[in-house]
Structure formats: structure tokens, C-alpha cells
Design brief:
By secondary structure, the chain is of the alpha+beta class. 28% of the residues lie in helices and 17% in strands. The protein has eleven helices and 17 strands. The strands form five sheets. The chain has an eight-stranded antiparallel β-sheet with strand order 3-2-1-16-15-14-13-12, with helices on both faces. It has a three-stranded mixed β-sheet with strand order 8-7-17, with no helix packed on it. The protein has a two-stranded antiparallel sheet with strand order 4-9. A hairpin with a 4-residue loop joins β2 and β3 (64-65).
Length: 410
Amino acid sequence: MATLRQEVEPDEAGLDVKALDRLDQACAHFVDEGRLPGFLVAVARGGRVAHLTTYGRRDVAADLPVEADTLWRIYSMTKPVTSVAALMLVEEGRLSLDDRLGDHLPAFADARVYESGEGADVRTRPAGGPIRIRHLLTHTSGLTFGFYHSHPVDALYREAGLESSVVPGTDLAHTVDVYARMPLQFEPGTQWNYSVSTNVLGRVIEVVSGQPLDAFFADRILGPLGMTDAGFHVGDEQAHRLSELYGESDGGGIKPVPGLPLRGGRPRLLSGSGGMVASAYDFHRFMELLRRRGELDGVRLLAPETVDLMTRNHLPGGADLRAHGSRPAHDEPNNDGIGFGLGVSVVVDPERTLSPSVAGTFGWSGAATTTFWVDPVRDLTVQFMTQVRPTTSLGVIPELRRLVHEAVTG
């Protein structure tokens, strides 16, 4: 087991110590107010960790502290890992960004698009073009989530048992087949809508590679990168390090809530959208792979040009997410000035973002208030880990971005 450690003093890495103290104090305030149980924040420059803070509890009732080796449910931060896996298959010529989804998953061959109506009166028409692999990576597929409660197609997802985005008690193949029976919200490639697309992409990886998703990840990504604690479940020897998951209580504090079924062996459904657990060390390794454009410690998973393609805005017309009329993603607090690449968000207009940022910065967040980003211009990587299913009012991520930005001096 490897543990994340501070490797260099902040001033040697061009970071202001007083600004980092303000960062720690601001994050600790969320804990002291009872809005977070605890947290880990790590800031690295040039690949060297220059700031690492743990504070609060990974399990409040048991009085267990957050430690550097604590394990975290990363939820949608699984998506970039799935995207890297798909891009590896693209580089190998086993998959193409322009492949029709129906060629790999025939259930999607005759997709239909929502036209009007609700419930049993929904009317659809044949899609004008196929869903392509690139549409899954960019969330422009026309798929959606059942928990949005904002469109008649969302309601159809709920009626099909997809309230939590997957069919309980089934495997990925079955769940994806249920997605295929749902109409699309819009023509593929025309709009952005954060959705179950990455679960479909995970199933494509299984079909193309001939391996279950967890085996492909372990053999091709996690093992080679030394991400020794990352995966879709925790073993008995890891379980004591797993953070409890919390949600907001009616009284304003937090309370334990059910989370991913990580204990008890390999889960039946392997969610490429949000099923992984990882330590801070694991995710630092993954961020380093992206910062170094596809290579880490002599192990190359992707060509530099592929990482450049992944971290470039792919939205129609080069617009940002807000210009596409999209709702904010449930894991991202703000979409102004933010585009979307192949599995990650990308800053396209820093002046429009609510938090200070640098053009080209990319990353993503998870539903339990975890987040990461890579700033190639300033050679900076940041991760924040906690375990609270948030509301958009929590505000910790924008504050984190602002304070990290202020800490960079060189």
C-alpha cells in the first residue's frame, strides 16, 4: 500500500504558505460548522506534492480521523478513468470515435428521439443520425438521468427503474439494454446533457475488449499506474480505511446515508460512470498520467496527442456548457465558461467562470463533493476528497478553486 506524502516545501514549488493556510482554514470551517465530516486536500506542482492536509473525521460516530490513506467513493471521477480506457482502445484501432454505437451494442441501432407528449402519450421519431462513440465521451448522445425531473424522458427513465441511473440488482449489460429502450432527448451530437453515457461507454469497453470492466481497468490502467487501492470494491483488509458517506440532515447538519455497495466482494454492476473507490495516492497517480500527457514513470498509456484531444473542448460550435442551455451537472457547481472534452470539463473562458481559473484547465467532480483538476499552464494538480452527497448551496468547490488560485505565486 502506497500513501500520498508531501514531497516539497510550498515555497519551493511556487506556492504561498499563507494562502495555503487560508485554504486549510476555509475547508476546516465547513467541518467545524458540521457541513462536512472531514477532508483531504492535496496540491502538487510539477508532479511533486507541495501541500497535503487532512482534517476532521472519516467516520464521525466512530471518531476515526481522515488520514492520507483513507479510501473515498469517487463517484463521477470514475468517468475520466473510463474515458482513458476507451481512448486506449481507439489508439489500438479496436474502436473509433466515429463508430456507430449500434455496431457495438445492437440495441442502440434504431434509436428514436423524443418529439412530444408525456408518459404513455410520448411520441418519438427515428433519430436523424446514429449515436457515435464520441457522443458518449462528450455527453452529447441524447441520453439522460432519471433523477433530473425536468423532461418527459427523465420520467420514462424513472418508470423503467432508472431513478438512481442503474437498474438495481442487475449487471451493466442489462442496465444498458434498458437505456437503449428509452427515447433520446435530442438528436445525437447537437446538445450537451450530462447523462448515463459513460455507463454505456463502459459496456462498449467490455464488448470490444472481451473483458469485464474491472478486469480491463486492473490490467490496463490501475496495475500499470500503481493505483493499488483503486477499484470497484474494497477487501476486508481495506474496509477500515473507507470513509463513511454522509448526506444533509433535515436539521442542517449531516447524517450517514447509504452509498455504493463497496463491501462484500465484487459488485454485480460495474459502473463506469461512478462506481470506483480510490485513495488520494491513487488519484494523484491518475492526475499525473494526464498532466504528463499519457505517460508516468516510464509507463505510457496514451499518446500525448490523444490526451491533448481528450482535454480540448468538443462542444458543438466551441461553445461552453451554459450556451447549450444545459442544467449544471449534479457534480459541477457552475458551467459558465466551461466546455467539455472527452470525459473531462475544460475551461474555455476564464473570465466567465465563477471561480478564478486558467484556460485549458481540465478535470471533473464527484457526487460526494470530491473534485480534481489539472492546470497545464501552471503545471498544477489539485484534488479534494470528502464524503457528502451535496446540494449546490454547499459552495466548497468554488471556494477551493479561488483559494488555490490565490496560492500560486510562481
